Amino acid sequence: MIGEKITGLHQEKTTLKLLGLNMRKTLLWLFFSASVFVGRAQNAPLWTLEKCISAALENNLKVKRGYYGVESADINLLQAKAAFLPTVNAAGSYGQNYGRAINPVTNSFIDRNSNTINLGGSGQLTLFSGFRTVNTYRQNQKSKVAADLDLEKAKNDVITNVVTLYATVLFNKELLDNANYLLTGSQSQLERTTKLVDAGSMSKGNQLTQEATVASNELTVINQENAYKLSVLQLKQAMQLPADSVVEIEVPNITIEDLTLTQSVKEIYETAKQLMPDVKSAEVKVEAARLSAMAYRGALFPRLVLSGNMQTNYSSVSNTPRTAPTGNFSLSDRPSGEDANGVKFYAYQPEYKTVAGSYTQQEQLKDNLYKSLNLQLNIPLFNGLQNRGNLQQAAVNQRLAEISKMETENALRQTIETAYNDAAAASKSYGAAQKQVTAREEAYRMDNQRYELGGLSALELQVSQSNLFQAKTDLTRAKYNFILRKKILDFYQGREVKF
Question: pLDDT tens for residues 78-90?
Answer without folding.
Answer: 999 999 999 999 9
